Amino acid sequence: MNIVILTGAGISAESGLGTFRDVGGLWTRYPLEDVATPEGFAKDPALVHEFYNMRRRIARRASPNAAHAALARLEAGWREAGRGGFALVTQNVDDLHERAGSRNVLHMHGELLRQLCGACGDRRDCPGDLSAAARCPACGAGALRPDVVWFGEIPYRMEEIGDLVPAADLFVSIGTSGEVYPAAGFAAEAARAGARTLELNLEPSIGRFDEAREGRASEIVPLWVA
Ligand code: BV8
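Above: the input record for the complex with BV8. Below: its predicted structure, written as tokens.
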């Protein structure tokens, strides 16, 4: 039995990382056009670096919660029992899944703690804050940006994800509002191919999944995994 799990900002909310569209969410404080598009970065790189430096500092101080830990346990048990394929796709750019013990996390929107050189494509861990003055350690250019996927950019790992989703027998969506594509289309794609679909969310979306369970991730995910 192949399982595909998609997570969003809601799974990291109880670790203290902001969600985007909830009351007081990141997009209500920073318009996404200004801080999560290539155009916004070209217009005001300092603002975008400040936005991601702030989030990077919070992410480094955060700890995985019981939901992240439960998914890591599920993956280990799934692989040990040889129960079939297991894939964890996340829209999140934090590293809490990895720090909870998950392996092979597919970060389709990139990783906050990594940097990308816009000039030579060099990608590596980001040692601290980024700024327009920072120089690429590989080519020396001053074109460093957070290694995240902005709106209008092509998500990472789409080849693999494009194979995994239609092959899923069970598709589980955790802590995502289902507003951002192409991730928002995965559940319907899996269902069309015959998968059972389950949503675990604080505010489940009515009618988009075969089953929906309402609650905080740190409570309902360990219950589901048990
Ligand atoms: C692309 C950057 C082409 C990193 C982000 C149709 C098809 C294809 C594209 C589009 C389309 N329609 C529109 C588009 C364009 C666009 C898009 O989707 N726009 C939206 C606004 C309509 N998409 C793109 O531009 C994408 N690129 O399409 O390229 C392409 C496509 C396919 C193949 C080839 C080429 C790129 C999108 C990536 C944008 N970058 N982030 C960063 O700064 O983090 S998106 C951003 O939103 C984050 O990554 C975030 O993860 C993501 C999704 O948000 P959620 O995770 O769901 O968070 P949200 O706050 O919305 O919801 C939180 C949920 O948690 C809620 O439901 C809440 O109830 C729940 N919750 C809260 N607390 C808890 C909880 N649940 C449980 N427990 C709790 N305690």
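Notes for the reader.
The chain has two domains: 1-16+64-109+155-226, 18-61+113-148.
The first helix runs from residue 26 to 29.
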